[in-house]
Amino acid sequence: MSPLDRVDLELLDALADDHRATVVALADRLGLSRNTVQARLARLERAGVFQSFERAIAPAALGMPIEAMVSVVVHQADLPRITAALAEIPEVIQAHGLSGQVDLLVRVAARDTRHLFEVDARILAIDGVVRTETSLVMGEVIGYRIRPLLEAARSSADRR
Fold it and tell me: 12 Cβ partners below 8 Å, 6+ apart?
């Protein structure tokens, strides 16, 4: 994708303020036509700028108040199959591939510590998983955020 221009960054900034804003509301806010906003949003979506339109739902609301990060070491050759097997475990709510000594960082949710122990056992039972290390999430200290990056990108674009 080509670099984001000032209008793209203003559009993303407006969406960061109100992720549910309609195309009409965004057009009004930015002083652009509805067609321009719609075309830009479509281009940004095709370029993979938007990660997900899925609502973030707190696992606690679903009876899963315990969250943990499971560091997983695997046999590298088995990684695609292991990833597919992890995706079959409903308590796995997110996973990232890493470089370094740990291969995967898996975020899981559980009803209680016994359930967490069972989830960890299911992960360990996947053929190719060498070992896991589980850490309880005590609280989120910095939530997912994009605003500081948007501000830096806008400053950089303004200097060009």
Answer: 4, 44, 49, 146, 150
The whole-angstrom separation of Cα 69 and Cα 127 is 20
Given this model, what pLDDT does residue 144 score? 87
**What pLDDT does residue 1 have?**
61
Task: Tell me the two tokens of residue 26.
Answer: 């965004």
Rounded CA separation 72/132 (Å)? 5
- Residue pLDDT, tens place only, 59-103: 999 999 999 999 999 999 999 999 999 999 999 999 999 999 999
Question: How far apart, in whole angstroms, are the C-alpha atoms of residue 73 and residue 154?
Answer: 39
Token representation of residue 28: 């009004």
The Cα 129–Cα 89 span in angstroms is: 14
| CB 120 within 8 Å of CB 132 | yes
Beta bridge partners of 96: 105
Positions in the chain short of pLDDT 50: none
In degrees, to the nearest 5, what angle opens at C-alpha 80 toward C-alphas 47 and 45? 10
Q: Would you give the end-to-end CA distance of the chain in angstroms?
A: 18
